Each structure stands twice: as structure tokens, then as C-alpha cells.
Amino acid sequence: MQGFSAGLAARLSGLNYDVMDYWAKTSFIVPSIAPAAGKGSQRAYSFRDLVALRVARELRDAGLSLQALRKVVAKLKETEGIENPLAEERLIITGDDVILARNTDELVSILRRPGQLYLIAVVNLANVVEELRKALVGQLSCKVV
After folding, report:
1. pTM score, two decimals?
2. What is the C-alpha to C-alpha distance for residues 9 and 24, in angstroms, rounded to an integer?
3. Under a CB-based contact definition with an 8 Å cutoff, are residues 82 and 40 in contact?
4. Beta strands of 16-111 (E only): which ranges?
5. Number of helices and strands (H, E) in the chain?
6. Helical pair 17-25 and 6-13, crossing angle rounded to 10 deg
7. 50 contacts 56 by C-beta, under 8 angstroms
8. Digits of tens for pLDDT over the chain (145 positions)?
């Protein structure tokens, strides 16, 4: 059997084994290599499953309820091309919402206002500082001449 055992997956993801067991039994995050097949069977998780488990744990640690997390995953699975949302997508928590960051121009509410776009402006501080330095060097060299 290839993959990561449930015990190793629990240690690597930082989750309690019982939590992972519950998530697997309720089809929230099911091991993709070898799901449980009855008493005594061994689950086997893929690396992608480990990423999903870790992201789910971090979202829970950030205050997202399991019910809200399930809702986010369900909404994202409705989106074309997303099979394993917790391992494929960039998610942002903003207190009461979860936002899908598909690219730098598109931030979409998933939880509170599904489908609503967020308008953002990101200032690249490094570029601002560099432009100011160049402008100052230009100004200073003109006055010295």
C-alpha cells in the first residue's frame, strides 16, 4: 500500500486521529488512496489529502466552524474545475467570510456573499520605495552638476 497511514497523516497535519476518522466517516475529507473498508482496514492518504487536512485544520484554528467549512468546500466543488478545493485553491479568511483568491484580480466571496467579487488594491511597497530612490538619485544628481 502506498501513501500515508492515518497515524502519520494525523501527525503531519496536526489533527487528532479521532477528528480525521470522523471527517472520513462523514465524507468530509476521505483518504483518496485507500478509504476504510471495514473494521481493521488501513486508510491511506495521498500528499494532496495531507494538504487538504492541514488547510482544514488551519481554517478551523482560524475560527471557521466545521459547518461553515463544509459549506465552503461544497460551494467550491460546484465551481468548474475544482475537485479538491482545500488542496487546490488559495483561500483567505476575513473574519466572517472565506474568499477564493483565484488570481490577483479576482477575489470571490464563498461563504457570506457567494459569488460576490471583492475590489482590492494592493500597494507594492518595494516598488514604491525603489521608484522614490531612483527619483531622489535623479534629483540629487541634477543639483550637484
Report:
1. 0.74
2. 12
3. no
4. 44-45, 91-93, 98-103, 106-109
5. 6, 6
6. 110
7. no
8. 588 899 999 999 999 999 999 999 999 999 999 887 767 678 899 999 999 999 999 999 988 999 999 998 998 888 767 888 888 888 888 878 888 887 667 788 888 888 788 776 667 788 888 888 888 887 777 665 4
| Cell of residue 94, nine digits | 476575513
Phi and psi of 101, rounded to 5°?
-105, 85
Cβ-in-10-Å burial (0-12, 13-18, 19+) of 103 comes to: exposed
User: Rounded to an integer, what distance in angstroms lies between the CA atom of residue 10 and that of residue 4?
Assistant: 10
The residue whose grid cell reads 471583492 is: 118
For residue 102, CA distances in Å to 33, 91, 110, 126 come to 27, 9, 12, 23
Residue 79 confidence (pLDDT): 78
Residue 35 grid coordinates: 478509504
Residues 6+ apart with CB under 8 A from 100: 76, 79, 89, 90, 91, 107, 108, 109, 110
**pLDDT value of residue 134:** 86
